[in-house]
Amino acid sequence: MDNLYDALELTLNDWQILFENWNEQKFRASQVCQWIYSKKEFSYHAMSNLSKTLREKLSGNIIMTLPIMMRQLVSKDGTKKFLWNLNDGAKIESVLLNHGGHKTACISSQAGCPLGCTFCETGANGFTRNLTRGEILGQFLMMEKINGADINNIVFMGMGEPFLNEDNVFSAIRSLNDKNMRNLGARHITISTSGIVPGIEDLADFEIPIRLSLSLHAPNDELRSKLMPVNRQYSLQKLVNALKRYRDRTGERITVEYALIDRVNDDPEYAYETAALLDGLEPYINIIPFNPIPSRPELKRSGQSRIKAFCNALSELKIEFELRKERGADIMAACGQLAGSKH
Ligand code: SAH
Ligand code: SF4
Does 199 sit in the ligand 1 pocket, CB within 6 Å? Predict the structure, then answer.
């Protein structure tokens, strides 16, 4: 039960109960949370609107565990990658992207990933454990503190599959969104999933209408199961049904990620198949350049003419898409390249 006494592990409700038990007023909970989540003040002694006695009581009873930054790499395009050491020595990474002044934090939900997609370095390095809610939030708050200003978008696109750590991810999102905590708008938060159907269904019913991104990468079960073993458990038809339910319940448009791997999934025929599969869903497709990974040197990024042919097929089909630029590949910070301290 140690976590109950670690500041970032506490929800607003936990803080309120704690202060009630200490015979303190309830609004003190919001005050402490505003110091931590809004002002990024992690020392109780500096929380100047609390009494000295309360500050001392907090220091003596509630520890403040934060991820320790082991390394910060800066890409030539401005992308920053952070390596964090957690309490038990597990290593995770987060990325800070900068698109023309708009900053986005890409954070991890697990140390490693158990799903082993063939094109992903995180998957190739195996799974260590789920992150706690405090570890999920800690990456973000530390990046904001280091950045010296708020970061107004957060994507669960770092290491791990968020829906395999759903309770902690949802708990962290509640605190990010809570107006007494980080007060980050629902539309500024995105979960990316490899296609965990029960997680998508839960998100459809989740009280905060955050955004959803699906990592598709192949439009039929045969090819997708080869690239993403998780597809054997949740087939594309089940997946599309869950996506439709999410869209109908939330009114939110889904983003679909598709990385073009040379001669693996980049035939224009697959663009037609993708359009047929997603018919009625009106998704927004991100075509991302495949980022080469050390564990699978045989997988190559598609050449310009193949990328063009695939995109032309999507245009013909009147599918809305964007051809993404790679970000941070020179520091292994691009999609699928995060590997903790492995390189
Ligand atoms: N596990 C979740 C969240 C991680 S997001 C998911 O898979 O969606 C990481 C994103 O990078 C996913 O869209 C994933 O499909 C993509 N990706 C993984 N390896 C990649 C690579 N080598 N090149 C480009 N994108 C990759
Ligand atoms: Fe895990 Fe996502 Fe990488 Fe697949 S792409 S191995 S689900 S992190």
Answer: no
